[in-house]
Amino acid sequence: MSDGPPLDPDAARERLLTAHGDLLATTLDCADAVAAGFETTVDGRPATRDSTAVRGPLRAALGRAGALDRFPDALVEAVAAAGGELSAPPVAAPPYVVVTSTGPVLRATLGPRRLVARIEAFAVVDGAFVRTARTPAAALAVTVAD
Q1: How far is CA 129 from the centre of its chain?
Q2: CA distance 70 to 92
Q3: What is the pLDDT of residue 45?
Q4: How far apart are the C-alpha atoms of 83 and 100, rounded to whole Å?
Q5: Cα–Cα distance for residue pair 115/106, rounded to 1 Å
Q6: Given strand 140-145, what is the order of strands in its sheet?
Q7: Which of 56, 99, 125, 142 is the most buried (most CB within 10 A)?
Q8: DSSP string spanning 11-64?
Q9: What would the pLDDT profile of 40-70 be if each residue is shown by its tens digit?
Q10: What would the pLDDT profile of 97-140 be if each residue is shown by its tens digit?
């Protein structure tokens, strides 16, 4: 059971794509830089079986590019576009911003609901982390969970 009006993940996704498309593109550029260091491929795409070869280097690349510091503002706008309001300003650290082995995840807990935006730059294919999505629209997934 959820409290308050429903959240619109499509509106949040659209806001991220239109207002923060450059941030999403920077994220994918950082993923390309990380994947360039992989020594294997799956289906002709750079890959690694070591999640730490993705997560740490991706976080470092995002930090150098200034993307980590921009994610909280993007999250605030996504929440507002979805019809929600954060109770506290987010920071570029858990639980709001987490860099996983598939890419950054922006999370906002809104009462009993959670808005989650994933920038899916890598996917697990045949047990390996493979560089996938080539465009912000292909990489971005926004969901709401009760």
Answers
A1: 16
A2: 8
A3: 92
A4: 26
A5: 8
A6: 97-99, 104-110, 113-119, 140-145
A7: 99
A8: HHHHHHHHHSHHHHHHHHHHHHHHHTT-SEEETTEEEES-THHHHHHHHHHHHH
A9: 999 899 999 999 999 999 999 999 999 999 9
A10: 999 999 999 999 998 899 999 999 999 999 999 999 999 999 99
* C-alpha distances out from residue 126 to 31, 74, 86, Å: 19, 33, 38
80-89: burial string, b at 16+ Cβ within 10 Å, e else = ebbbbebeee
SS (H, E, C) 56-68: HHHHHHHHHCCHH
Indicate the SS3 state at residue 75: helix
pLDDT of residue 6: 86
- Asked if 16 and 75 touch (Cβ cutoff 8 Å), the reply is no
Domains of the chain by residue range: 9-145
Confidence of residue 4 (pLDDT cuts 50, 70, 90): low
Distances (CA, A) of 16 to 41, 78, 110, 113, 139: 31, 6, 18, 19, 12
